[in-house]
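Complex record, four chains
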Amino acid sequence: MNNAKKRSDCPVSSSLDIWGDKWSLLIIRDLLNAKACTYGDFLKSPEGIATNILASRLQGLEENKIIIKLSHPDSKAKVLYRLTAKGIDLLPIIIEINQWAEKYFPVPEATQALLKKVRKDKPGFIKAMIKELES
Amino acid sequence: MNNAKKRSDCPVSSSLDIWGDKWSLLIIRDLLNAKACTYGDFLKSPEGIATNILASRLQGLEENKIIIKLSHPDSKAKVLYRLTAKGIDLLPIIIEINQWAEKYFPVPEATQALLKKVRKDKPGFIKAMIKELES
DNA sequence: TAACTTTGCTTGCAAATTGCAAGTGCAAAT
DNA sequence: ATTTGCACTTGCAATTTGCAAGCAAAGTTA
């Protein structure tokens, strides 16, 4: 998703041009869960992304303003990645994906617990989570 | 998305294993728009999917029970593809993608019109569309 | 201060996937 | 009987992926 080739004017297609690959949404998932991640944090995720692919995806997401690179307060050697407002706004999509998944195959307990809260009050859940991610 | 390799237990990851490539969701989009498509219909979409890729994606989606292949009432030479209930349930994800896209870049008039209705009553819109797709 | 480790990448290369063009086989129309 | 339409398949070049190794800058340890 590095190269900026737009296949059509369709909003779904344009969105997929940005984050429609097997890895980008997992990076975004990590950032929704953790609020901020280092390069090494992404590598530790269970799917096992290759380091060169991670670098290329982070670059693409940054170019598309989905994430921002920040300097780590503790160390110059470390880098922090965070979601922009545009990236945070992918949360509803991720929630719907989780709900779809829960309906059609077994999901982890932690997911079930979160989705229970979502079911109780989805707009409230999203609002609270956005507030948390922006702080 | 042909091969059934599950990268992790994460519901997002598992979902992407099924339809998380640059083409599958466009096939699903076409089926949400048209209810039923022939092989040739998919080829006509503006993104220009290659015929071998289309064949491989249709096979994968069928294996994962997202779509079904039906015989065309008019001709034995034709095949109809339709969404299963599992496939139709991807509609909320597609809607959220459209809404995200509308927020961050210009979208076609037709999309804007549809999203206006979504904004007015999202659950109602989804319900009506599911009913239409299942009929 | 020198050696060692950690962090965030980059590079090289083989393997897999994609995309283009050209078939192929069956059905239907002429 | 021949041509056309439809749903794919095949061959092959080009791109992308994934593994392993390398590397510079920063931080830690002795």
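Note: Chain B has eight helices and three strands.
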